[in-house]
Specification:
The protein is an alpha/beta fold. It is about 55% helix and about 15% strand.
């Protein structure tokens, strides 16, 4: 994998510049304040760094940065991009636009992406080491990550993480059930009372509507039967109408005037009345015979309906809500009855997940222990060329108690160093000398390159605090590292700059109105002059030129 091209437009003092990169060691030099850090800020944008509006060049609406990588040999990176829905073959183009209001947009191979994705991508592309970047050396998590990568234990750590999450989930579920059961236990008396009352009542879904309709029908039937009885009593009471009409009919029929027309018509009318009355009595008798009203049934229906409504008012719900309340009470009582079995099952599951986690964590711990000697030996081999032969390095890997369990296992990993013979070991963050820290970081970075996929390695003034033979040793080590990896270094030391295969010079100019940073790739002659300047300062002497020639000749 290799960074081919970096294009920067309207970033701080840079108007527009395109940098080409090759394999080997690329060096950046220039006066202090010329703008070397701007290059890293620009690269940081395409690697997901925070968008800071102050990076936009004064007078411009937006800043733009694009970087093109060749990733034909990074099958793992291509697969990762495919998982993120981004088509990638051999070329990876990352672009980011930063507006003066602080907002930004980013693209990977012309796919719009989030800054978070850029940050994740950065881990696959670039490793940045700087003189002030001591976060890694002061972070116990970083020690563990480095040891795991060197031990080839990253896959086992994923197994441990999965086991830990399964254990944590089962513990969470157990605690949740415990809380539910505790709540149910507090409500036991109330639930048992509710269940007893509702079991006695035994409400049914929709029963209120059904009883209401039954009651309406019964009341209607009662009213109808009452009306029929009253009508029948009128017809057949103490002075029945039919008897009176019959006597009137007999009286007229036996009179000597029965044959007279008007009397005859009256008799015919009375005959019809008697017949109609007889028919009415027949219908009423049939209704009375078949239309029965069960007063006790109506009373039972009304009692049931009123009992349901009274109970619903008591529990401030509907009659159908009583059914749900009854079911809930029974469920909680049942849950309490089965609580022991449920808790035992979850206890067993938690124990199973715990044992699995502890077993896998122990395997991971042993893998870490088995890699320590080899890692320390490899670091010591890298320290020797950097003139740190007396420095001793060791890794402490201690198995912690179960209470300290994490998704990363149970090991506490600490990197310790003794810079000089006779001095006690201390954590890396306690190293006093910036030069020693820089060189140790370089040694550690070189060792870890053996187990990491190829990244572009960038060293920002990592040689600060060194000089002379030590600086030359750093330069030689960076050059050898550049034979296998793409390496870039920002440096003030001629011994380091002389080792580069490409050399960029950074300078700042002012036209009276505006200051601009320029980045120029140096020819061999220009490179000779720049190294002479780094040796002698503003006034380049012949001695400095001769010294530069010796450095470059040594490089060749």
């Amino acid at each position: 994998m290799m960074l081919h091209r970096l294009t920067i437009e309207h970033i701080v003092l840079i108007e527009k510049v395109t940098l080409s990169f090759e394999r080997g060691l690329t060096v950046f030099t220039g006066e202090t304040g010329a703008g070397k850090s701007i290059l890293l800020d620009a690269l940081g944008l395409v690697l997901g760094a925070r968008a800071d509006a102050s990076l936009v060049r004064h007078g411009q609406d937006a800043a733009r940065v694009s970087a093109e990588w060749d990733i034909h040999d990074r099958v793992d990176l291509q697969a990762w991009l495919q998982e993120e829905g981004i088509e990638a073959d051999s070329v990876l183009l990352v672009r980011r636009v930063l507006k003066k209001d602080g907002t930004s947009k980013a693209w990977i191979n012309d796919h719009p992406v989030t800054v978070k994705l850029l940050k994740n991508l950065a881990h696959h592309l670039v490793a940045l080491h700087g003189q002030h970047d001591q976060r890694m050396l002061g972070d116990a998590g970083s020690y563990r990550d480095l040891l795991d990568a060197y031990a080839g234990a990253l896959a086992q750590r994923r197994v441990v993480a999965d086991a830990y999450h399964a254990w944590s989930h089962s513990q969470t579920e157990r605690e949740k059930l415990h809380q539910q059961l505790a709540q149910a236990e507090r409500e036991r008396d109330y639930m048992e009372h509710v269940c007893k009352e509702l079991t006695s009542l035994a409400p049914q879904q929709g029963e209120e509507d059904e009883l209401t309709q039954q009651r309406i029908a019964m009341v209607s039937a009662e009213k109808r039967l009452r009306a029929v009885r009253e009508a029948s009593e009128q017809l057949n009471g103490a002075s029945p109408i039919a008897s009176q009409l019959a006597r009137t009919h007999t009286l007229l029929l036996r009179s000597e005037y029965a044959e007279e027309p008007h009397i005859a018509h009256a008799l015919d009318a009375l005959d019809r009345c008697l017949n109609e009355l007889a028919e009415a009595e027949t219908h009423l008798e049939q209704l009375l015979r078949h239309d029965h009203h069960d007063a006790r049934a109506q009373e039972r229906t009304e009692d049931r309906l009123f009992a349901l409504k009274d109970m619903a008012r008591k529990y401030r719900t509907s009659c159908d809500g009583l059914v749900e309340l009854w079911q809930d009470a029974r469920s909680k009582i049942t849950a309490l009855q089965h609580s022991t079995a449920s808790m035992n099952a979850l206890d067993a599951l938690c124990a199973q997940h715990r044992n699995h986690y502890l077993h896998e964590a122990e395997i991971l711990h042993q893998m870490r222990l088995s890699a320590i000697d080899d890692l320390c030996h490899a670091v010591h081999e890298e320290l020797a060329p950097l003139k740190m032969q007396a420095t001793r390095f060791r890794v402490q890997c201690v198995l912690q108690e179960e209470a300290c369990a994490t998704a990363h296992g149970l090991s506490e990993v600490v990197f310790e160093i003794s810079p000089n013979a006779g001095t006690p070991f201390a954590s890396l963050g306690a190293i006093a000398s910036g030069g020693e820290l820089s060189r140790f970081m370089l040694a550690l970075a070189v060792v870890m390159r053996r187990v990491h996929p190829p990244h572009m390695m960038i060293f920002d003034e990592i040689d600060t605090g060194t000089g002379g033979a030590v600086a030359e040793a750093i330069g030689e080590r960076l050059a050898r590292l550049g034979q296998q990896h793409q390496v870039a270094v920002v440096t003030h030391l001629p011994q380091v700059a002389a080792q580069g295969t490409m050399h960029y010079h950074i300078r700042k100019t002012t036209d009276g109105n505006q200051t601009t940073t320029h980045v120029t790739r140096l020819s061999e002659d220009e490179r000779h002059e720049e190294i002479a300047r780094m040796l002698s300062g503003a006034r380049i002497t012949q001695e400095a030129r001769h010294a530069a020639a010796r450095l470059l000749a040594h490089d060749e």
